[in-house]
Design brief:
Elements lengths: L3 E5 L4 H17 L2 E7 L9 H19 L5 E6 L3 H9 L4 E5 L13 H9 L4 E4 L10 E4 L4 H17 L3 E7 L10 H27 L5 E7 L2 H9 L4 E5 L13 H9 L4 E4 L7
Parallel strand pairs: 1-2, 1-4, 2-3, 4-5, 6-7, 6-9, 7-8, 9-10
Antiparallel strand pairs: 5-10
Helix pairs in contact: 1-2, 3-4, 7-8
Length: 279
């Protein structure tokens, strides 16, 4: 089992927030912290390597100042940012990145780098926008019954246990398009919702049984997954999503749902892809 958290830095403010989040997570969960900077050199960049090393050293100093007994290592890496971070994620418990950055990390959330890493890295990728000023004492996770959401719930449980806070499992059922000229369809919609809601509630029961030390609540809501997740995440310290799913959470990372959730929520968001997953 991998036992270190990897955080990518580039000297930007969101990257510093990512270091701070990763340092706290490493402290809570008893993991080591590996800080990396992917230094992409350009022919016209004078003293580029020195600049990269300086950013990396500053990040290492910040992490060590925030932790007590956490092993903190730093490493300067060459290559393409996306490919390098994806490759390095294979040996990490999780990857932590700032939402936007400088150089290779520019456009982190809404651009190709963030989506590429979050959609293809091994294991969880946590996107941090800014330092957490207010602590709500809650972890929220989206569920749709897929293998990716199972992996997300497992990571969310681990986070809730380490933080000693409740975990809230959210299922969103989006109402299908219907014809206003078919009143009987309302009855069918109600039946479909009740069936899906029961199934979602039943999926939570085994997690409660397996982790009796974690207070796990659940909610089955009608609505678009974007609005449901945004509302739930407004009072969360961390929102966890599977990288791909079924139903309302389909394409939660690579499609419009993730774009909207990441754009509107300011709390850290973890995107979880099952290890060994081919997709």
């Amino acid at each position: 089992m991998t036992r270190h958290i990897m955080v990518g830095v580039d000297g930007s403010a969101p990257a510093t927030a990512a270091v701070e989040w990763a340092a706290a997570d490493a402290q809570r969960r008893g993991l080591s912290l590996r800080i990396v900077h992917v230094c992409q050199q350009w022919p016209y960049a004078a003293n580029g390597t020195d600049s990269c090393a300086g950013k990396l050293a500053a990040a290492g100093d910040r992490a060590r100042a925030l932790t007590r007994d956490v092993e903190v290592t730093t490493e300067l890496l060459p290559g393409n940012v996306i490919d390098t971070l994806i490759g390095e994620s294979a040996s990490a418990d999780s990857v932590v990145l700032g939402s936007r950055g400088l150089g290779g990390f520019a456009g982190m959330i809404l651009g190709s780098v963030g989506l590429g890493v979050a959609g293809h890295a091994t294991g969880p990728v946590v996107i941090v926008r800014r330092p957490s000023v207010v602590q709500h004492g809650l972890v929220v996770v989206g569920d749709d019954g897929s293998g990716h959401s199972d992996a997300a719930i497992q990571y969310a449980v681990d986070q809730a246990r380490a933080r000693r806070v409740p975990l809230h499992v959210v299922y969103a059922w989006q109402v299908p398009v219907y014809s206003p000229y078919a009143p009987a369809y309302y009855v069918l919609l109600d039946e479909a919702y009740e069936q899906q809601a029961r199934a979602a509630a039943e999926r939570v029961a085994p997690w409660r049984a397996k982790y009796p030390d974690v207070r796990i609540t659940d909610d089955q809501a009608r609505g678009h997954p974007v609005s449901v997740l945004i509302k739930a995440g407004e009072t969360a310290d961390l929102v966890v999503l599977g990288s791909r799913g079924l139903g309302g959470f389909a394409s939660a990372v690579l499609g419009s749902v993730s774009h909207a959730v990441l754009h509107h929520l300011t709390c850290p968001i973890a995107v979880v892809r099952p290890r060994g997953s081919g997709v």
